[in-house]
Amino acid sequence: MKIARIPFLIFVLLTSSSCQSKNTKAKPVLAQEVEVEQPTFTPEELQKYETAYFASGCFWCVEAIFESVKGVKEVYSGYSGGIEKNPTYEQVAYGRTRHAEAVEVFYDPELISFTKLVQVFFGSHDPTSLNRQGPDKGAQYRSIAFYKNEAQKKVIMDYVSLLESKNVYNSPIVTQIKEFDIFYKAEDYHQDYEKRNPNNSYVRNVSIPRLNRFKENFKSYLKEETH
Fold first, then answer.
1. Which residue positions does the secretion signal occupy (predicted)?
2. Domains of the chain listed by start with CATH number
3. Which residues are catalytic?
4. Strand partners, 102
5. Is 146 exposed, middle or buried (0-12, 13-18, 19+ CB in 10 A)?
6. Positions of the chain with pLDDT under 50
7. Are strands 143-147 and 176-179 parallel, antiparallel or unpaired?
């Protein structure tokens, strides 16, 4: 399978704020939340699409990136990669589980392939950063590419080999390649967080710049409305 090389994205630490820094035992304040009209799908409608799972830092950022990609129908923020059942945001964000913040991507395979989703994944974060993305530190922010079958596993491994053979990065790729087990959807207030909270300091200083860097390097992958 021929896989096109993607541009190397330099991941810059923009601020000292982090996705975890605003975690409290209570629900985060949403005073700045704005109304956003989003296409909604019933569970029955989503069943006709394929799913893919990735973790690459704060799920607010990752969800927004994948939602900008054509062929992607819906993205949910949640938790995966650990063994604890029904984890909460407080537990995961404070490193009290073995789960990572992750996303569930519903996509139309006739419009976008799993291979391209893997390219989006590697091209939108730093896969050489161990247990960290930008200002977010801890194993809950680690890089994981999940696979549901051997074909997907091969796509991921082949792409990692390609990136390494082309010396795209100056350091070894530390992304976990992990068989998918289960995904726990995060609390409702985390869904579409970036779009609904554009004035949040973390969103302004980390999420939106990260999304814009991705858009600049993957213009041909974007939905028309996100150009």
1. 1-21
2. 48-220 (3.30.1060.10)
3. 58
4. 78
5. buried
6. 1-16, 22-31
7. parallel
